[in-house]
Each structure stands twice: as C-alpha cells, then as structure tokens.
Amino acid sequence: MDRTPFDGDLVRCDLACGVGADGHWHGRYVVRVRADALRGLGLHPDRPTAVIAGPSPPRW
C-alpha cells in the first residue's frame, strides 16, 4: 500500500446521507485535515495563497 502524507488520524472523512424533502436520497462528504498535516506540506494560513483570491467557478 502506498503511503500518504496523511497517516493516522490526520484526515477524517465523514458521509452523511438521508432522504431529502423531495423523497430522493442525498449524500454529502465532509473531509477534515488537521492543520499540522497541512503545515508539513507547506500549506498553512500564513501563506498568501491560503485565502480565496478570486471568484468561485460557475456552478455545474
């Protein structure tokens, strides 16, 4: 198995799903990465590229 920079409990993935008001199933993934893991990759809030720098892409 390949090793990733996110070993152990540094990443958490959750799935929430259920029937919506329209009667159809809906699901949503939530991915959380600990700040310590991001700092190890050079990504952290102190970097100027860590903030939104432009408009969001159009919705699909």
How is this structure best described in words?
- It is a single chain.
- A hairpin with a 5-residue loop joins β1 and β2 (25-33).
- The mean pLDDT is 78.
- The N and C termini lie far apart (34 Å).
- Helix content is 10%, strand content 30%.
- It contains one helix and two strands.
- Strands 1-2 form a two-stranded antiparallel sheet.
- The protein has 60 residues and is mostly beta strands.
Helix-and-strand structural type:
mainly beta
Count of helix runs: 1
Counting DSSP E segments of at least 2 residues, the number of strands comes to: 2
* Mean pLDDT figure: 78
Provide the fold topology:
Elements: E1 11-19, E2 25-33, H1 35-40
Antiparallel strand pairs: 1-2
What's this model, at a glance?
The chain is mainly beta. It contains 1 helix and 2 strands. The mean pLDDT is 78.
List keywords for this structure.
2 strands, flat, single chain, 1 helix, two-stranded antiparallel ribbon, 30% strand, 60 residues, mainly beta
